[in-house]
């Protein structure tokens, strides 16, 4: 069975992808226009694609111009990939995003120009990452690092609201909304909506707002009219256009996620579009400002709002239409967060109708371990259509994911109501290299001896990844490991083959040693946090334990490394309190185990890991694998399930076994002569008796699971699992 784990960390919204400032249907419309060489799309695509070059950096820049160049390059390559399918563009975009994910640490201080810069760059990198989310060649670990980078490096500067003019706040909101969708962050998404609603009231004026007394903050307008912006009289050709672009981008993101902010802001936005367009077309401020003349710059920021209110809603915006068709599509500048909107949001001719079919309700992600038996994907909706790619061919049959290889796949599903197919919801399926750690009621003795309780644990893993140096054969270095847990401790057992055991270096990791990596919250961040631990245990080092980061607690950790022929056996017991964790069944834990090998003194000769593929896990927890804390060890590997469920299936008459679980005695009622055999977790027969009607048993049983095997005179057998509580 698959692991029923859903990572709904930030709320209950089902995010639609792509769903930042672009949605899939409209991107496909533009793609068809470019393929058909239709104008103006093809001409503007040719302009944009000149930016879509390969990445030439290994570190994210910190200066504005360098960051702007990187962000524009990522965005241009993402769009070029979607419109052409050329994997070179995809790799170019991912290269930029990965460099930022690996190296960018944030803006300092979190005020002033950095707030604007964080908004500008986030409003480009966010949509770029959201488009690339649909590319199967982006490694899940790399994408996770980019998401973590956004949360740790961008959130602080974006969530610190600017005290400057409103265009900065709106630029921050633009970035917040796009990044929130890429990260599937309900909290940040809602915060962006909250800030946008508040800022709209204080940036876009309509006469129903009444008299305002903060004239100076609005640069002293001479007329308060519908569509006046807070910065109209400051710089109508620059800041006001940037602010309008940011507000419309954020509103478009909300629209693509099923939140209609356009309707509640229709009067404000339409009036602003029309007033500003008229001012730029005529070169006159229409009496709104003391200086009635304007020589406004012209940015390609009009298409998003015009597309919604004219193409979607059917409203007439004559000044906006005239400005777009006569000037913007020919000369509009794409700068900072205003990025080739004529290419992406000129949707003239895109047929829309009154279809209001929502996306179906899905659970995402769905996760399995390698080799698990997967179930068909499910969604709640009507006339479901399933897609293996976002623009692929529909199927009425839900796919069943393959679980043979670790990785992440995304499937899409829509529903159709009254002949109208709605937007697609995405379901991410993760196939994990999962280490299963069963619970135990039998405490292993930490002495380097493989106790019976370890023999009953069939969840063994091998060290197979060479991450450093050379390993010549299995005798040189190899090994397997297991783990168990209870409410107090995590237990580790490793059986290591190492024909030469060496201890001669002051640095413990240069000798034969085991490195245990743990991420209790399974955050998989790119740097160590408070709940990330690396413990290194050296051969023949007594009770010494090295920790990374230095200073991590080793309170009440005990371990043993005992020589065997051609290697050693390692056992450890680590308190959950030392790890700052409280274990529960189903909990995911970041985990990895590495073995160092020193054959001739000096530094290491080789190193093997379970999950990491590079020797960087000592500083990068995102390289850890994943372990899951499972329920008690099932006797003889019997499947978990209903405790009263018959574990076989034959003709033996009905049997009643109760109560189950029990903290005192069990009762068994039968209707024929039978022999009852009780077997403990280690497979040992502990009781056997005959019964023809009713019998009690189990008064002295220790806590734990047991098999109850019932056989009749005809040779039929039924088997049950029972649980004795404390």
Q: Could you provide a short overview of the structure?
A:
The chain is an alpha+beta fold. Helix content is 28%, strand content 21%.
Structure description:
This protein has 726 residues and is α+β, with helices and mostly antiparallel strands. The protein has 4 domains: 24-345, Glycosyltransferase, CATH 1.50.10; 366-432, Sandwich (Immunoglobulin-like), CATH 2.60.40.10; 434-632, Immunoglobulin-like (Sandwich), CATH 2.60.40; 636-724, Immunoglobulin-like, CATH 2.60.40. The protein is built from 15 helices and 26 strands. A hairpin with a 4-residue loop joins strand 25 and strand 26. The longest helix has 21 residues, at 64-84. It is elongated, with a radius of gyration of 32 Å.
């Amino acid at each position: 069975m698959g692991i029923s784990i859903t990572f709904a960390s930030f709320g209950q919204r089902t995010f639609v992808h792509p769903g930042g400032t672009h949605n899939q249907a409209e991107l496909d419309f533009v793609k068809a226009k470019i393929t058909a060489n239709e104008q103006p799309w093809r001409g503007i695509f040719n302009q944009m694609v000149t930016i879509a070059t390969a990445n030439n950096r290994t570190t994210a820049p910190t200066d504005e111009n360098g960051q702007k160049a990187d962000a524009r390059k990522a965005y241009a390559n993402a769009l070029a990939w979607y419109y052409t399918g050329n994997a070179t563009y995809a790799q170019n975009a991912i290269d930029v995003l990965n460099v930022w994910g690996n190296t960018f640490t944030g803006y300092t201080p979190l005020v002033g120009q950095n707030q604007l810069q964080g908004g500008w760059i986030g409003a480009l990198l966010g949509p770029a990452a959201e488009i690339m989310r649909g590319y199967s060649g982006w490694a899940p670990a790399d994408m996770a690092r980019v998401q973590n980078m956004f949360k740790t490096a961008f959130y602080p500067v974006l969530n610190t609201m600017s005290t400057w003019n409103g265009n900065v706040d709106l630029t921050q909101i633009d970035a917040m909304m796009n990044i929130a969708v890429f990260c599937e962050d309900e909290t940040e998404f809602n915060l962006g909506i909250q800030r946008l609603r508040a800022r709209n009231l204080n940036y876009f004026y309509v006469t129903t707002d009444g008299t305002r007394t903060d004239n100076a903050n609005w640069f002293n307008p001479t007329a308060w009219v519908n569509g006046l912006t807070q910065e109209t009289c400051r710089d109508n050709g620059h800041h006001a256009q940037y602010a309008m672009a940011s507000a419309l981008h954020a509103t478009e993101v909300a629209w693509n996620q099923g939140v209609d902010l356009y309707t509640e802001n229709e009067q404000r936005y339409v009036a602003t579009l029309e007033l500003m367009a008229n001012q730029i077309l005529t070169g006159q401020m229409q009496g709104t400002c003391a200086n009635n003349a304007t020589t406004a710059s012209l940015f390609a920021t009009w298409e998003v709002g015009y597309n919604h209110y004219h193409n979607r809603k059917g409203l007439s915006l004559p000044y906006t239409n005239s400005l777009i068709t006569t000037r913007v599509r020919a000369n509009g500048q794409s700068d900072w967060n205003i990025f080739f909107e004529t290419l992406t949001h000129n949707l003239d001719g895109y047929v829309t109708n009154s279809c209001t079919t929502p996306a179906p309700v899905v659970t995402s992600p769905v996760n399995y371990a390698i080799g698990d038996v997967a179930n068909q994907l499910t969604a709640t909706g009507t006339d479901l259509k399933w897609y293996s790619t976002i623009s692929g061919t529909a199927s009425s049959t839900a796919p069943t994911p393959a679980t043979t290889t670790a990785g992440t796949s995304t499937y899409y599903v829509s529903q159709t109501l009254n002949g109208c197919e709605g937007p697609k919801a995405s379901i991410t399926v993760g196939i994990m290299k999962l280490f299963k750690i069963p619970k135990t009621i039998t405490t292993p003795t930490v002495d380097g001896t493989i106790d019976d309780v370890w023999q009953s644990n069939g969840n063994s893993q091998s060290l197979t990844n060479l991450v450093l140096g050379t390993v010549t054969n299995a005798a040189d270095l190899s090994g397997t490991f297991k783990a168990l847990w209870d409410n107090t401790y995590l237990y580790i057992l490793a059986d290591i083959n190492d024909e030469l055991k060496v201890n001669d270096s002051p640095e413990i990791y240069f000798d034969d040693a085991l490195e245990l990596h743990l991420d209790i919250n399974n955050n998989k961040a790119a740097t160590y946090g408070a709940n990330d631990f690396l413990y290194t245990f050296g051969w023949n080092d007594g009770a010494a334990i090295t920790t990374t980061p230095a200073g991590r607690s080793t309170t009440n950790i005990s371990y043993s490394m005992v020589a065997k022929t051609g290697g050693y056996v390692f056992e450890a017991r680590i308190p959950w309190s030392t790890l700052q964790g409280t274990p529960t069944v189903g909990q995911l834990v970041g985990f990895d185990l590495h073995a160092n090998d020193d054959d001739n003194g000096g530094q290491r000769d080789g190193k093997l890991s379970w999950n990491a593929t590079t020797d960087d896990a000592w500083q990068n927890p995102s390289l850890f694998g994943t372990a899951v804390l499972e329920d008690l060890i099932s006797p003889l590997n019997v499947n978990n399930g209903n405790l009263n469920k018959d574990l076989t299936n034959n003709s033996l008459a009905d049997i009643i076994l109760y109560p189950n679980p029990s903290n005192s005695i069990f009762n068994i009622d039968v209707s024929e002569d039978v022999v009852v055999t009780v077997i403990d977790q280690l497979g040992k027969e502990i009781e056997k008796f005959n019964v023809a009607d009713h019998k009690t048993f189990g008064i002295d049983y220790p806590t734990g699971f047991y098999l109850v095997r019932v056989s009749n005179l005809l040779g039929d057998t039924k088997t049950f699992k029972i649980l004795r509580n404390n």
